[in-house]
Amino acid sequence: MKNILKTKVKIKYPFLNPKLLVAIILMLAVMIGGCKNSEKSNSLPAKVYVANEDGGSISVIDLQDSEKNTGINISDSSGMMYMAHNVQVAPNGKSVWVTAVPMDSTETNQVVVIDPKTNKIKNRISLGNNLHVAHVVLDNESKYAFVTAKEINQVIQVDATTYKVVRKFDLGKGHSPHGLRYFNGKLYVANMDTKNMSIVSISDGKIIDIPLGGMTVQTAVTQDGKFVFATLYDTKEVVRYDIKNAEIKRIPLPIDAQGSIQLYATPDSKLLYVADQGELMERPVSNKVFVIDIPNAKVISTITVGNKAHGVVVSKDGKTVYVTNSSDNTISIIDVATQKVTATIPVGKGPNGISYWSEKGGMP
User: Fold this and answer.
1) Where is the YNCE-like beta-propeller domain (predicted)?
2) Within a domain: residue 67?
């Protein structure tokens, strides 16, 4: 047995000469590389748009190649700087809308419209002075845009084709509307000072206020149409509003929460991602994102991101979450399957709102 193990056996393969082996290896390498390139080319192009409030710009991140980070300066022709507070891709993917507050308070508040094909500004819509425009959303058909104006307690409706103001919804004195979302002919508006949510029926202009008992900053609507969620900054809660039954469920955030701002649900309406910012009301800055189980209305996970987590959006396929870190001038990318941060990408100064674009359209 020992002799057999020590014996060297030479086996010849005359058909595999060295030159032929090299050729086969090269051919296989080309085939493998081709498969990889094919996979990349078959994936749909996608981008995220980030509103850099302090930098007066929009960052456009190519999600197929994050090094392709384009900056769009939203200053006007006179050099006037505008703070980009919020950004929203139209559902049809043909335009990107930005709320722009002038550094000079005597100048006119604007909504800047960007062409996602060229990433160039194609229109500026003047809305008026002393408005403090905050957030913008569009209806499902991308026919109208709706903008909150905090100082005058209104939601302004703009025709997305003519770029003309067609209507104003007066919420009432002292509301201070901030974030809002659209679903099925209605607007769900977060009011900071009156601590409630206004439900605006666009067809007839009727407005119903739902008391929430806390400083309401932003809303989110699940795509199955069952729930509206709202962040309550001061009470460190998220509220779940049952649309059909008009019932409210309060969801307490973890003890280390410092005050949540924006929130967004996955397309399957199973998970809600909540950006915990802090800083306001003399609280420390937070670097957390809380994950809420929507059917069971409870926090199931906490993810550490960058400092002063503010804006959040989910990809169209529901696999990825994007969060702005306002103090770090970055965005964090979260994998939904693992609940882990997979990348951190630098953007402009003071990133605030964030929105998702793909060839299939924008996330609402």
Assistant:
1) 85-354
2) yes
